[in-house]
Design brief:
By secondary structure, the chain is of the alpha+beta class. It has two domains: 4-194 and 329-415, Zn peptidases (Aminopeptidase, 3-Layer(aba) Sandwich), CATH 3.40.630.10; 198-322, Alpha-Beta Plaits. It has nine helices and 20 strands. The strands form five sheets. A six-stranded mixed sheet has the order 1-2-6-3-7-18, with helices on both faces. It has a five-stranded antiparallel sheet with strand order 12-11-14-9-15, covered by helices on one side. Helix 5 crosses helix 6 (294-311) and helix 7 crosses helix 9 (396-415). The radius of gyration is 24 Å and the shape is elongated. Mean pLDDT is 94; it is low at 1-5. Bound molecules: zinc ion. Zinc ion binds next to loops.
Length: 417
């Protein structure tokens, strides 16, 4: 290992750096779609601390940032995570406000400390300290910090595509490149599989009439009940035919129902209590493994469409649409070089075999896997149970340890080449 000297004194210094930088970034509100200011702060930090030229990757209103340190022709570790946070409920925070970082013993409180600003900070500092090691003459760290992970995944989609489309200019050899997507897993294990995630809206169309003469209409509210009821049968069929050996059973949850709607003059508006509604909507949260999620959930969408059309009573019609672009799942190649390298470092650092987690939610690993990179689904300091909750915090010592872990993985990745 090239980095043993980084124990002891260095780790204390890194804790100080982690606290300072993470506090600075927490204080800049960066909810999804509003990441411009935090990205400017990262750019300033890069120009003050590193000798490299960061790149802003912008498209379709999404701004992302990437910077690299070390030898471009050597093996490369791409460290990537998101800078956006989820809109907090400030009233429920008791220790501090979401945007007022506060240190209590080993805990740094503040929005994003755990998911995922604290992880971004560990990645930034890993790049900084790696840049001045001997290993940086033989390999490289690229840090890619993205926006809109919590909403659409657009930031990673754009950033991973950018890397894939500029392999030559960026001197990236996919065979020599490993990607770690940063999400809080703790440092004793990693997430090796994420289910795919699709949100679906079913719109049921009937015929409106006065509530006193129901025989003249087609009641979309009543029809909704039968469609919702049939969804559990459909789910059972999917479980029977498509339970994934790694990701387990598909799930379909009804998360939204709006059955008192009428469609009139091109607009959908609430129906009056004495009106038979002609329109109803059902929202579904759908999570599953292969082959259902492949090609943007093509098979699942086809099966669901068939099921809905078959279940409708005569004269009703329905549209089945994605609420927004679905995100496919991703499974880390646990026999691959990236997983073996990470497991080797976890074993060396902790003395234990790496734990493997499976996640029921999609994440950005899919975009990196799709772009052709050997990708670790999730690995970073923190605990996913502290995501999106008041008084979010991360452990300062763990974030500092993550700096050393990310460096050690890079070193091992170079040595294993
Ligand atoms: Zn996250």
């Amino acid at each position: 290992m090239l980095f043993l000297y980084l124990g002891g004194i260095m780790s204390f210094e890194i804790q100080r750096e982690v606290t300072e930088l993470c506090s600075k970034l927490i204080a800049i509100p960066s909810t999804s779609g509003n990441e411009a200011n935090v990205i400017e702060a990262v750019l300033t930090w890069v120009s003050n601390n590193l000798n490299c030229s960061p790149v802003k990757i912008e498209k379709d209103g999404s701004v992302n940032i990437s910077f690299a340190v070390g030898e471009p022709t050597g093996p490369t570790l791409i460290l990537t995570t998101h800078l956006d946070t989820v809109v907090p409920s400030p009233k429920k925070w008791t220790v501090t406000d979401p945007f007022s970082p506060k240190v209590v013993d080993d805990r740094l409180y503040g929005l994003g400390s755990n998911d995922a600003t604290g992880i971004a900070v560990s990645m930034m500092l890993a790049a900084k300290h790696f840049a001045i090691t001997e290993a940086a003459k033989h390999g490289r760290i690229i840090v890619a910090l993205v926006s809109q992970e919590e909403t659409s995944g657009l930031g990673s989609r754009i950033t991973a595509d950018y890397f894939k489309d500029h392999l030559k200019e960026l001197v990236i050899d996919p065979q020599k490149t490993m990607v770690i997507v940063g999400e809080p897993t703790g440092l004793d294990g990693y997430t090796c599989a994420n289910k795919g995630n699709a949100f679906i809206k079913i719109t049921i169309h009937g015929k409106s009439c006065h509530g006193s003469t129901p025989e003249r209409g087609l009641n979309a509210a009543a029809e909704t009940c039968s469609i919702v009821h049939s969804i559990s049968t459909f789910e059972e069929i999917l479980i029977r035919d498509y339970t994934d050996p790694v990701l387990g059973k598909p799930t379909i949850s009804v998360t939204g129902l709006n059955s008192n709607l009428i469609f009139t003059d091109g607009e959908i508006v609430p129906a009056k209590p004495n009106t038979i509604p002609n329109t109803a909507t059902v929202i579904l949260d759908c999570r599953m493994g292969e082959p259902l999620f492949v090609d943007n959930f093509a098979l699942f969408a086809k099966l669901l469409e068939e099921h809905v059309q078959k279940s409708l009573h005569e004269s009703f019609t329905a549209d089945v649409n994605f609420l927004h672009s679905p995100v496919e799942g991703h499974v880390t190649d646990t026999e691959g070089k990236a997983a073996r390298t990470l497991e080797q470092v976890v074993l060396e650092k902790s003395g234990n075999r790496a734990k493997m987690h499976i996640s029921t939610g999609a994440n950005d690993a899919f975009f990196w896997g799709e772009a052709g990179f050997d990708t670790i689904n999730e690995f970073g300091p923190g605990d996913r149970h502290r995501n999106h909750i008041p008084d979010e915090w991360n452990s300062i010592s763990e974030m500092a340890e993550a700096v050393l872990m990310y460096m050690a993985v890079t070193s091992a990745w170079i040595e294993n080449d």
